[in-house]
Every structure is written in C-alpha cells, then in structure tokens.
Specification:
Blueprint lengths: L3 H11 L3 E4 L5 E4 L1 H5 L11 H4 E5 L6 H6 L4 E6 L6 E9 L2 E7 L4 H8 L11 H37 L10 H13 L4 E9 L1 H8 L1 H17 L6 E6 L2 E7 L4 H15 L3 E3 L2 E3 L2 E8 L8 H17 L5 E3 L22
Parallel strand pairs: 12-13
Antiparallel strand pairs: 1-2, 1-6, 3-4, 4-5, 5-6, 7-9, 7-12, 8-9, 10-11
Helix pairs in contact: 8-9
Length: 341
C-alpha cells in the first residue's frame, strides 16, 4: 500500500506541476514547480475554480461538473495578471481529484517568465527536449547574428578601403567619381574645385618622398578644415585634389574658400627641421552654369580652369568659362593671384 507521504513524494518527482483537490475542489497540495511560478501567493487552501479560468471544458459551474466532464482534459490559465496558458488532466480519486498540469507549447515563454530550469520538470517530460532545442536554436541564432554582424562590418570596411586614399585618409578618385555621378543623377547643384600643388616636385626632388608624403598629408588636413561636413574632399591622384561642394554654387563664396586654401597652403611646412614650401592653383566649375550635367565633363572644365590658373602665374584661381579651352586670353574669368615668395 502507498501512504499519503509516499504518494506526495512520488507526485513531486513524476509531475511537479500537480494539484491535489479535496471533495469540495479546494487545493490541499501543490507541486513544487506550480508553487514556484506563484511565489508570492499561497495556492494551498484556494478553490481550484477560483484560481483558474477554464477554456475547456466550457460551462463548468461547480467542481462536480468538472469531475463529470468527459475525458478530464483541461485548457486553462491563471485568473490573475499573468495569464499563463496551460494544459491539464483531472482524475477523480477518493472523492477529490488529482490535476496534472503542463505548459504545452508555451513552455519556452514560461521558462523565460518564471526563470525555470530543467530541475523544475520531470526528467521524462518532453518539455526538457523542447527546452534543449530552444536553447540550441537560441545559440545558433545568436551565432548567426554575430556572424552577420562581422560580415557586415567586413563589407563596410572593405568598401571604405576601396574608396579611401591610404596616404591622406581622403576619398580616392573612385569615390570621387561615385559621388559626382550620384549628385548629377539626383539633379543636385554642386561645384567642383580642382586643386594642384605648385612646386611639389621640387620638394620630392630636394627633400625626398617622405617629405612629399608629409606635405600631401598636411594639405589634406587643410582641405578638410576649410570645408563643410557635407562636402567631399578627394585625392584625385599624385598632388591633385578635388573638392565637391554640395548645394554651393555661389561664386563669391567659392572664391573666398579658394583664397583661404591658397593662403594656408603657402605657409611653410616643417619636416625634420627642413622647410617645405609650395603653393596651389585652383580651377572651379559650377554645375548650374553648364548646359550638360555630365560629371566627367564638369571635371574636365574644372581641369581646364586649373591649368588656366597655372598659366596665369600659379598660386591663383579661375572659374571655368566657355572659350577657356582655346586659351583665349580675354575669356571671361575671375583671377585671384597671390605671388609665391
């Protein structure tokens, strides 16, 4: 014979989410896991139908009705704020009943909400396998997420490297052409400033390529400092730079920027105790002043204006105007020449 103590110990081990009910439907014993999910509420002594709301069977008005329900299968949830859905089976015994409960498909949410572990379930409960699968899936999803993040970071890094000049940290020619094409396709007004360093070869020939690299880096810093965040500063190659000014087509303002660049670049740069002295010539083309929006054509016009500035004595700036390609000395240009002393 099994006494009540042995029965309780057996139920605690085999189905830790059980209830023992007396003949009035009052709870006389609660399984450890079931009590754990309501730690602040003493379930023993409560009426079963006051504690749970039944979805199946329907139309149960009394404990007797519940015992007489066909099959004894239950779909129910707590009546209080956290309405955890559960499945159950009720079996009449000695005038009372035993109710075995489980979380069913909501076991993962229940484990999360109530901080349950495998020790809260019977070792043969299928929920254990489901928990292991859920954990394995969670680990796999996290690993996949981390891998995707690394791949995305690697992609971004590769794209940045592909568009970056390694010496100066500026955009390279490829990036410059990409930005220009995007501006042109979007119909945005913009201006191009083509910048070439005067006397740079002399620095390389007399002080070496390390000094030349230093000069290029210092010029890049000046260009960034004298432009806005929305502008694009690129090293087009060698000692040539291009600045793309978004939504800036005002000639006087562009002229003031170019003058500041010329003045700052002319300041002597010290490299290992040696003075590196250069100047810069600047050609400017404005998208709204040209009938065609072809960015490469606009860049060619800025290049024409640049070499017109060089022919004018260097350390100066010129805006592109029609006829400048023919070296017309009376072409309508604006000149701001600073002597290189």
């Amino acid at each position: 014979m099994i006494d009540n103590t042995d029965l309780v110990r057996m139920l605690d081990m085999l189905c830790p989410m059980y209830l023992l009910l007396n003949e009035e439907g009052v709870i006389t014993r609660v399984g450890p896991t079931l009590q754990k999910i309501r730690p602040d509420r003493e379930l023993k002594g409560e009426r079963f139908l006051d504690l749970f709301e039944l979805a199946r069977p329907r139309c149960v008005g009394s404990f007797a009705d519940l015992l007489n329900a066909k099959g004894g299968k239950l779909n129910l949830s707590f009546r209080d704020a956290r309405k955890t859905a559960m499945k159950g089976l009720i079996v009449g015994i000695g005038g009372g009943a035993v109710v075995k409960l489980s979380f069913g498909i909501s076991v993962v949410e229940a484990v999360r909400d109530y901080h349950l572990t495998s020790a809260d379930f019977s070792s043969t409960d299928p929920a254990i396998e489901l928990l292991y699968l859920a954990e394995a899936n969670s680990v796999a999803m996290e690993a996949s997420r981390q891998l995707n993040l690394r791949l995305q970071a690697a992609k971004i890094s590769a794209e940045e490297q592909a568009f970056t000049d390694t010496l100066t940290g500026l955009k390279n020619r490829r990036a410059m052409e990409h930005v220009m094409a995007r501006r042109a396709s979007g119909g945005m007004p913009y201006a191009l400033m083509h910048i070439d360093l005067d006397f740079f070869k002399q620095v390389n020939d007399t002080l070496g390529h390390a000094a030349g690299d230093y000069v290029l880096q210092q010029v890049a810093r000046v260009l960034v400092e004298e432009t806005r965040r929305e502008d694009t500063v690129a090293r087009a190659g060698g000692d040539e730079f291009v600045i793309i000014f978004d939504h800036l087509t005002d000639r006087p303002r562009l002229q003031r920027i170019a003058r500041r660049l010329i003045d700052r670049v002319e300041q002597p740069m010290r490299f290992h105790g040696q003075s590196c002295r250069i100047s810069t010539s600047i050609g400017i083309a404005i998208s709204t002043e040209q009938p065609a929006s072809d960015p490469l054509k606009l860049l060619g016009q800025a290049d024409v204006a640049l070499y017109a500035a060089k022919r004018g004595g260097r350390a100066g700036l010129r805006f592109y105007s029609p006829g400048m390609e023919n070296h017309d000395p009376v072409a309508s240009v604006e000149v701001d020449r600073a002597r290189f002393g």
